[in-house]
Amino acid sequence: MDALEVGSSSNSMLRLCQRLAFPNPIAPPPRSSVHSSSSSSKNYPFLRTSPEISRLHFAMANPSQAVSSKGPITHVIFDMDGLLLDTEKFYTEVQEIILARYNKTFDWSLKAKMMGKKAIEASRVFVEETGISDTLTAEDFLVEREAKLQSMFPTSELMPGASRLIRHLHEKGIPFALATGSHKRHFELKTQRHGELFSLMHHVVLGDDPEVKQGKPSPDIFLAAAKRFEGAPIDPKKILVFEDAPAGVLAAKNAGMSVVMVPDPRLDSCFYDIADQVLKSLLDLNPNDWGLPPFENPAS
């Protein structure tokens, strides 16, 4: 089946998911096989308006299914929140507390719109979508949320498989970097207990980096990360991004890169379709799928 030949009911669900997570509709990838990617970092095809979106590789049920035709991968870029560090729960908890004052609830359709974005961009989504912008500005929301998060971030735990994958890539000499929407102060708090592991990154690009003009789903942060590898420019088709958020997946595709999505199980599965591969956990990754050196020992 051609990548664009999906049923009308599937298209309707995909369009609904797009409207839930992104104010502007998302365009389909170029007409090609489901395992190829010709996205251009100059054209940002996934940011253009279109009534449909194609169905790409889905591998949650069988994460070892080969997608090697996209490789071989030579460089890797990681997101951080919800992918390497279990920090998304902190944002959820604080936002639930704030909304409770207005007799409103925080659900995953709203969270999907906020995940991966810069703080101020996510804050605007929060106050506008919940209808509280007349009584709480995005800026005031950030101040209140910040005060509550300060004590939570230093307790951040690693997500399953994060340490194993990072150390494996480091041992095998695969260059990898971090591209996170978190700004410097939050990054330092979140990684406080994991400094040694994060020091293995070739470089780190933060949300308040001068080169990151727009947050995800704009490709800015991934393009900035790619430029800082030794030997740059790196062909984006040789870069693999790991993400958990719909906006982050789109950002990676807009940069012309392949992307493995490791979503929270509560995220609606209709958001999976743009990713090249979807895993339940980093522990399920088979590096061979991407032409990367295999793990020497099975996941435990």
UniProtKB/TrEMBL annotation:
EC number: 3.1.3.21
Reactions this protein catalyses: sn-glycerol 1-phosphate + H2O = glycerol + phosphate; sn-glycerol 3-phosphate + H2O = glycerol + phosphate
Enzyme class: hydrolase
SUPFAM superfamilies noted in UniProt: HAD-like
GO annotation, biological process: glycerol biosynthetic process
Transmembrane segments: none
One Pfam assignment: Hydrolase
A GO molecular-function descriptor: sn-glycerol 3-phosphatase activity
PANTHER family in the cross-refs: 2-DEOXYGLUCOSE-6-PHOSPHATE PHOSPHATASE 2, PSEUDOURIDINE-5'-PHOSPHATASE
NCBIfam families assigned to the protein according to its UniProt record, in alphabetical order: HAD-SF-IA-v3
Family membership: Belongs to the HAD-like hydrolase superfamily. DOG/GPP family.
Name this polypeptide is given: glycerol-1-phosphatase
